C-alpha cells in the first residue's frame, strides 16, 4: 500500500471497488479476486495487463438474485441495443409493418422506404 505506484488507487490504500461487470478491471484480476474469500489474498502476484498485482479481498460482494438484478440487466441490454443501428432498424421496420404505417403526403412518401424494404426481408 505505501509503496504503490498506482496513481488511481494509492491515495485510498489501494482499494478497488470489485464488481464483475466492471469493464475497467483486467479479466485476470477479476478471475483471481473472485476466487478469494474475505481476508484472503493471492499467494503469488497476479499478472495483469500493466504488470503484477497482489490482491486482498476485503469484502467479497454477495451474489445478487436475478430478481434484484433484472432491472439493471434489462436496462443494460436495451442501452446496448439502442446503440446498435442494425437492431434499431429492424425494430423500426417491425413496428412500421405491424402498425401498417402509410404516408399519404407525396413529398414524404419515400421517407420510410428503407425500413419497409427491411421489413419485407425479415
How would you explain this protein's 3D organization?
The radius of gyration is 24 Å and the shape is elongated. It is mostly helical. It folds into 2 domains: 1-63, Roll (Chitinase A, domain 3), CATH 3.10.50; 70-121, no CATH class. Helices cover 40% and strands 5% of the residues. It has helices spanning 27-34, 66-83, 85-98, 113-121; strands at 46-48, 51-53. 4% of the residues are buried. The termini are far apart. It is built from 4 helices and 2 strands.
Features:
about 120 residues, mainly alpha, Chitinase A, domain 3, 2 domains, two-stranded antiparallel ribbon, about 5% strand, elongated, peptidyl-prolyl cis-trans isomerase activity, PrsA_foldase, EC 5.2.1.8, PPIase_dom_sf, rotamase
Mean pLDDT figure: 83
Number of strands: 2
Spatial order of the strands forming the largest sheet: 1-2
Number of domains: 2
Keywords: Isomerase, Rotamase, Signal
Organism: Lactococcus cremoris subsp. cremoris TIFN3
Catalytic activity: [protein]-peptidylproline (omega=180) = [protein]-peptidylproline (omega=0)
EC number: 5.2.1.8
List the helices and strands and how they pair.
Elements: H1 27-34, E1 46-48, E2 51-53, H2 66-83, H3 85-98, H4 113-121
Antiparallel strand pairs: 1-2
Catalytic activity: [protein]-peptidylproline (omega=180) = [protein]-peptidylproline (omega=0)
InterPro entries: PPIase_dom_sf (IPR046357), PPIase_PpiC (IPR000297), PrsA_foldase (IPR050245)
Domain PpiC: 1-59
Question: What's this, in brief?
Answer:
The chain is built from 4 helices and 2 strands. The chain is mostly helical. Strands 1-2 form a two-stranded antiparallel sheet.
